[in-house]
Structure formats: C-alpha cells, structure tokens
Design a protein that fits this description.
The protein has eight helices and no strands. With 238 residues, it is mainly α. It has one domain. The longest helix has 29 residues.
C-alpha cells in the first residue's frame, strides 16, 4: 500500500525547507533582507519543516516494518550507514570552511543515529508514545550545559558550543517516536486508508510526490544551488 497523501505532505516539508534556506542564505551570506519580513516567521517555518521530516520518517519506519518485517533491520542499517557517511563528509567540508561553527550534528547525523535507535525502540510498540513524552520533557527542562565536549549529540552542549545546524537526539528523537507511535495507532484504529489517494492525482500532487522521492538528493544539493544562483544574480547586478 502506497500512502500517497503522506508523500504529498513530505513534498510540502521539502518546499518549506528550501524556502527557509533561501531566506537564510539571503540574510546571512548576501546581507539581503528582501524576504526577511519576520524573524519569528522564518524561525518557526524552519522548525515546522524539520519536525515534519522527523515525524514522517518515524511514521514511515512503521510502514517499512509492515512491508519488510524480517528485512527492516538490514534495510535501515544500510540507510543509516549511507546517511552517516554523508553526514561525516558534510562535517569535514564545513570544518574546513567554517571551523568555528562547522556542522557537528546536522539533521542527517540525527537521522543516521535515530534509525538505529528506532530499531531498538520498536519493540516497545505503542508505548513509544510515553517515551516520546518523557524525552521531550527531559530534553527541554533537565538537560544542563556541561563542560564535556563529547556529548553534544545528545543535547548536552558546553558553554562555547557553536554549530551552523544542530538537531540533537534530545529532544528531537521524541518526534520520531511519536511519528512511529501515531502510525501504530492509525493502523490499530484502521485509519491508514485516509492517506491513500482515492482519485487520479493532479499535476500539483504529482510534483509534491516527485520532490519527496528525490528528497535526499534535494537536501544535499539545494543549498549549494541556492548560494550559486544568488551569487550569479549578485554579480549580474554588479
């Protein structure tokens, strides 16, 4: 069963992400405020995009589990390995260009570790909902700032910590657990069918699905493409 409405929602999350990084590049690289009409809007727009990605990936893990039950471990070990390799390369590249705030635990780092954790947590099934609530409470209210420099990936940052993009396990792993639990609840209540397409797709829906099925490629290249395009525009104006 292909839940195409879920793919459309994921395509929407990609568009939100690209728009967020377009404004970020304009403001922080090219000192252009043309789209920056509200800092609060762009902050929440970027967070909504990331949270949608994480929630839907948790939901999708459950669907993959239903389809590949015996092979889901091998499948996600492979995905995690690929993502960790990409994440490591991003860290190395950004360290060479921005050593003071290079990307240490980007959302790709987060996914590569979270998929491994979810393989373990899936045994708890719907009780992951409770663990998700505990994680968010702990992540927001009890994680201190510490002097140790090696636990930042869990959210334990030290006073001078800087990173260009940062999604630690606490509190964001709770979103993935909630996505996974929500999928279980929907299957239990027999509501998964509402995510199926009951009619022929239109071009807009096809476009959103097209985006999602190339989401990793878009995620990796969209920022260099945006910066290159904006740089080209700036040189043409000059």
């Amino acid at each position: 069963m292909r839940l195409e409405r879920l793919d459309i929602l994921r395509g929407g999350a990609i568009i939100l992400m690209v728009l967020f990084h377009l404004n970020y590049s304009l403001v922080h690289i090219f000192n252009n405020e043309v789209l920056n009409f509200s800092q609060n809007f762009w902050f929440y727009e970027g967070r909504i995009s990331a949270l949608l990605f994480i929630f839907i990936w948790g939901f999708s893990f459950f669907l993959a589990e239903q389809k590949h039950w015996a092979g889901v471990l091998k499948r996600y070990l492979k995905i995690s390995s690929v993502l960790w390799t990409i994440a490591l390369l991003i860290s190395i590249i950004t360290y060479n260009f921005f050593p003071e705030q290079y990307i240490r635990f980007w959302i790709i780092h987060f996914f590569s570790i979270s998929f491994l954790l979810l393989i373990l947590f899936r045994k708890l099934r719907r009780y992951n909902f409770l663990f998700g609530i505990l994680i968010i409470v702990y992540g927001f209210y009890f994680i201190p700032v510490i002097d140790n420099q090696y636990f930042y990936f869990m959210g334990f940052v030290y006073p001078t910590f800087l990173s260009a993009d940062f999604y630690p396990l606490f509190p964001y792993f709770w979103v993935m657990l909630l996505g996974y639990s929500f999928a279980i609840f929907m299957k239990t209540w027999k509501y998964l069918h509402i995510l199926e397409m009951k009619k022929e797709r239109n071009r807009g829906e096809d476009f959103f699905i097209f985006l999602w099925r190339r989401s990793l490629l878009i995620y990796l290249i969209h920022q260099p493409v945006i910066i290159g395009f904006l740089y080209l525009l700036s040189t043409m104006k000059a």
